[in-house]
């Protein structure tokens, strides 16, 4: 599995706003937080979080009274989409002496073929009082994010991509932007991590993979419609952005290279979606996580993106287990499995863990 697929698992929760930021990252001015601007950015955020009207039916939860659910095969964009059996996903139940916490591994960017979800997933969500996501999308402020991107995603010392990237990579990147219908001249001051994000997002959109079909988005929308559910973020969008921006430049270039040369084949997401529907842990471990963990050039990235964040998010889950509220925690599937995953970190005699 390519790094681009892995990349989707970890950063797509904020990709929708970063792509918007990328188009404006050449603006170096500060973004003032006047009341009018705050109102405007709230409207912008809400618009970004609102699915297209035609897509609402595809994301509805299955009806228990026998009403028909739109077939995933009919909804999928390619001929090999599976039939509309419910997706198993990656769901664990953790029980302490005081409460229950459900952990669901998400795929952040997808298409309609992930739906419907299994009764086990939907029942766990309905039982829960708290929805905890990697980030609470209601806390994302477009103006603040644009400012951060301008500060951390753009060279301020006069350097350009032509000076930073190897000549062959720069030339191939220019050709890729032309194919994607973007003016490469407008992004010459961007740092490699931001260019990589932009290419990734454009390709995802080109083949019909959207954040609005991601598992995080689905449950965020569902929780917003229920007044008895609290939504919390385990991290912040700003923290995730800084994590990407703080990687060494050589590592950023390696990520960009791998993303670019992955190719445009629409097949690259299909195995990932298949693995999520079937709850295939082995596929995620061997084809996604090990690709990064075993690469000497990117082991530092693995530690920053997975190991360190898994430890911190597991700490938050322990606080939920020590409380009394039933919680439904949704994080990228890659954060849950493997020897460094949250499930392994949470193993304890103080509570039981069961894969559902």
List keywords for this structure.
356 residues, 6-stranded mixed β-sheet, 15 helices, 49% helix, 9% strand
Biggest beta sheet summary: 6 strands, mixed
Secondary-structure element order, as H and E? HHHEEHEHHHHHEHHHHHEHE
Order of neighbouring strands in the sheet with most strands: 4-3-5-2-1-6
Counted beta strands: 6
Radius of gyration: 20 Å
Give the overall form.
Answer: elongated
> How many separate domains?
1
Low-confidence stretches: 1-35, 44-55, 61-83
Oligomer: single chain
N- to C-terminal separation?
Answer: 25 Å
Instruction: Please report which band the strand proportion falls in: under 5%, 5-15%, 15-25%, 25-35%, 35-45% or over 45%.
Output: 5-15%
Word description of this protein:
Helix 1 packs across helix 5, helix 5 runs parallel beside helix 10 and helix 8 packs parallel to helix 11 (249-260). The protein has a six-stranded mixed sheet, with helices on both faces. The longest helix is centred in the last third of the chain and has 24 residues, at 299-322. The chain has one domain (3-51, 87-355). By secondary structure, it is of the alpha/beta class. It has helices spanning 3-24, 35-49, 72-75, 119-127, 142-152, 161-164, 167-179, 192-206, 215-224, 237-245, 249-260, 270-278, 281-293, 299-322, 342-345; strands at 90-95, 100-106, 130-133, 230-233, 327-332, 352-355. The model is unreliable at 1-35, 44-55 and 61-83 (pLDDT under 50).
